[in-house]
Amino acid sequence: MTRTHERLIQVIGALLIVSGLILWLTSTFRENMLFFVTPSDFISMPRDHPAKTGKRFRLGGLVTVGSIKKDGIDITFTVTDEKGANMVVHYHGIAPELFRENQGVIAEGVLKNDIFEAERLLAKHDERYMPKEVAQRLKKENLWKEK
User: Does the pTM exceed 0.85?
Assistant: First the structure.
């Protein structure tokens, strides 16, 4: 075998290895990707969309006023968006400290029997949020400014 043939075989082998790695990485990324949708987005999705076929996704919106029902550590509430669509969410666990009505929330989980079963809740805050300890210290030093 000539030197040119050996190089050609090495280049082809390297290309096969690199393309195999790229295929493996993209398939792994696709499997672990979580969709982020609002209730309106979810309603408008086709029936065969991964979020509607039992795949995990993130649901985001505002917690509807008057919708929070607690039973021990089970919490059921409704998430809404600016378009008026709603989805019922069930969460088993301790809710984040910032979780409350009319506040942004992101729930991560799956849809089961028309109820979003959240495995994780993330409470969103507005840009003016400040930890309680920092606010108390600013008030103590007379640097606090009410908005």
Answer: no
